[in-house]
Amino acid sequence: MTNNVFSRAAELSDSHTPFAIASIIETSGSAPRHNAQLLVEDSGQTFGTVGGGMVERHVIEEAIAAIKTGQSRMVDASMSRSGKNAMGMDCGGAMKVFIDVHNVKPQLLLIGAGHVNQAVAHLAARLGFAITVADSWKPNLTAERFPKFTRLVDGDTISEAIVKTTITPDTQVVIATNHEDTQALMTVLKTEARHIGQLASRKKVKTLKAKALESGISPRTF
């Protein structure tokens, strides 16, 4: 079982895919396991076990949350019905699990897959970003044009493509489309993106800002 965990960890590392390894570091009383590892992918897929049941479900939830924040964490679980960290169980034991996050990189979303964002993608890859590219023009979304492991997302419209991506408070966005900047900007401004960059002339920026304000976007956004 341990070999499966670390074999999968090696595969995920090679593909630069985020994951976490939960390791039991301390137990007391009647714990289901005393020394075990559980690998958790951001999708919820798991390899290995830390004992199953409510404790393992809790550890999986905590691991997925840790991957999203990019921060490792300690988890305490009490296999009792009440009290601190109680899991609603009758075993009476307790377990301390360390969740170690791997391969979590800063997220960069490039909207538009043209020459500009192709160049930005290659530069960002050198800086260690995990890159997603979204476009409504599928011919632009050719894997050979982008760094290895770039996620390519298409949609019938640019907004549809953006909705298919994952934008968190840690996501940085660069917009550089052919003719869909207005639609893209309006969509992204409604998300929690950490930073939004728009490639445009001064005149175009002024026009885009006016349209955003007219649509009800708060002036504090700019």
Automatic annotation (TrEMBL):
Residues 14-75 form the XdhC- CoxI domain. Pfam families: XdhC_C, XdhC_CoxI. It comes from the Bacteria. Gene3D superfamilies: NAD(P)-binding Rossmann-like Domain (3.40.50.720). Residues 108-220 form the XdhC Rossmann domain. InterPro entries: MoCofactor_Util/Proc, XdhC_CoxI, XdhC_Rossmann_dom. Coiled coil: none annotated. This is Xanthine/CO dehydrogenase XdhC/CoxF family maturation factor.
